[in-house]
Amino acid sequence: MDKEPITLNGLNKLKEELVYLKEKKRPQIVAAIAEARSHGDLKENAEYHAAKEEQSHSEGRITEINDIIARANVIDVTKLNNEGKVIFGSTVYLEDLDTGEKINYKIVGKDEADLKQKLIFFQSPIGKGLIGKNKKDLVEITTPSGAKNFEIKDVKYV
To answer: What is the pTM assigned to this prediction?
Structure first.
């Protein structure tokens, strides 16, 4: 079983979701199934089948979160003294040399990645292209939309 790197924040969010699913969602689903059962014939009971489907999905997610937590290798970058090097968990401030656009990304694990939140998977093309580089480096990264050229303006460990 491979360890999966995760930030402290990512682990805490997973734990919160697990508590919600177990303590709030599970009892709601059980109540919905009981309610639907009381309506009689289960073969043609859409509420019953929908509730059972939701239960299956929810229990699957609980299993998935438990598995992720079991494999979690928490990396707390605030405790690392790593001046200017891009590592897992660091936030990288970039300038796109083609457009002049300034952008920042936090490099995270698979389950935390969310491009809208500027959280990128360390194994993604941009994540792979940045890890190991240093502040002030010029980096060319091949993305699905073509090659991009960046300058690493700053690296923070927060």
So the answer is: 0.78
pLDDT in tens, 46-56: 889 999 999 99
Among 3.90.1210.10, 2.60.120.280, 3.10.20.30, 3.10.50.30, what is the CATH number of 77-156?
Answer: 3.10.50.30
pLDDT at 1 over 70: no
Contacts of 78 (CB under 8 A, 6+ apart): 157, 158
